[in-house]
Amino acid sequence: MTQITKFHGVFPPVPTIVNAQGELDKVGMATLLDHLIASKVNGVLLLGSGGEFCHMTNALRLETAEFCVRHINRRIPVLLGISSTSTQEVIEYGQHADRLEVDAVLVLNPYYARLTDEYIYHHFKTVANNIKSPVILYNFPALTGQDLSVDLITRLAQDHPNIIGIKDTVDNISHIREIINNVRPVRPDFVIFSGYDEYMMDTLILGGNGGIPATANFAPQLTCGIYRAWCEKEYETMFGLQRRLSALSTIYSQDSPFFGIIKKAIQLSGVDISTHVMPPVFPANEEHISNLKQILQRAGL
Questions:
Q1: Non-local CB neighbours of 35 within 8 Å, separated by 6+ positions
Q2: Residue 120 annotated as lining a ligand binding site
Q3: Domain range for residue 158?
Q4: Quick one: which of 108, 164, 166, 285 could link to 138 by a disulfide (CB 3.0–4.6 Å)?
Q5: What is the pLDDT of residues 28-77, one digit of tens each?
Q6: At 194, which helix (H) or strand (E)?
Q7: Residue 40 falls within a domain, yes or no?
Q8: In terms of Cα–Cα distance, which of 1, 150, 145 is closest to 74?
């Protein structure tokens, strides 16, 4: 299997399990990873947005990456987030990922300072030229403050063979449609993942590769079920699962960020993990938990 063909289906953005002191909970982390592998996910994303990388020290990021990659032990493909506001720091995280021999890395555009498209292009080009791991772009304009334009994505895909795909977290399926329409003619093998859970089915229909849905951490029977039904052309099954998945979308509005909500949902699904989160965020409170239980019930979970 080539590096590119590994990337299809459902890659949950895995929460980082920590204790009350904000230290990596290795037992809980291993429990969650084993649960996801047993649930037949196609791969995992470590240290993405839902992995709380933005609230971690450098040391904790490195420790988390090393422990998780070792524990997974090539059972499934690993996509590792290496984002930072500093291009040089991204390269350093990327070279660490090279040493771990991950399957690919996920890279946001730098945030806080507003950059021209040329500066964003230079960032991704510099990273791709200085690491061995394949690069998947990460577009999340609601958090970074800047959208990766379709023209910029197309240029990066055309110019850099080491940039192999994109996770597009834009709340509009037309953005993915335009990426497919513009990028695939020049890079037919370019991987396109939906970042929003409820757009994964539409992404597959349009010709994309799958999704990176946080709900796969606690409802893999829905997200993985949608992908399996798509592959087996069981469309009525797929539509039914999609309707149930759509009922979960309100989970993300229960708190901002939703790190504690996702961890509590995983625990409620029967996986024995702690629900501690990194400061400044708090774990889910009683109101959150009550609302969460109702949402899960409406989705038949």
A1: 271
A2: no
A3: 9-217
A4: 108
A5: 999 999 999 999 999 999 999 999 999 999 999 999 999 999 999 999 99
A6: strand 191-194
A7: yes
A8: 1
